[in-house]
Amino acid sequence: MRVTSRSRLWPYYRGVRVKRHQTVAFCVDEGNVMQHMLITVRYRVAGNHAHFRHDMSKAAAMIAELPGLAWKIWGFDQDRGAGVSAYLFESEPAARAFLAGPVLERLRNRPDVTEVTFDIAPVDRGLSAITGATRALAAVPTGAAITPAGAPA
Fold this sequence. Notes:
Oligomer: single chain
Order of helices and strands: EEEEEHEEHHEHHE
CATH architecture of the largest domain: 2-Layer Sandwich
Radius of gyration: 18 Å
């Protein structure tokens, strides 16, 4: 669907403020907007952080292939031994499958990892667009782009 500056949908489309020449991405499933899901995982690492990072570099390739995963961002504070990861999934079923799958189970079963917790929430597209996440959401493989007239396709 093309939203133009002359459209009655301009400058809003489904509650997202759209600027001229801005692309806003939505996942579309049978005419309905699918909900991107954000998962954050927090954990503590005791012991050798270099060994943990080495092991995670091997696991990263497997994680990158998770069905429905758009991206994952890794964070680790070595001084506190605190890790946090953010995952963006293209749909709730993909996010729920990840939570029930082997990745978190393997993390929980590591002897050097404790306090594994997670949060899951639908992405608020309107607030995310305001804070610059439009391109990150556009990276989701099943996203259908809405391109304002005159914007590069």
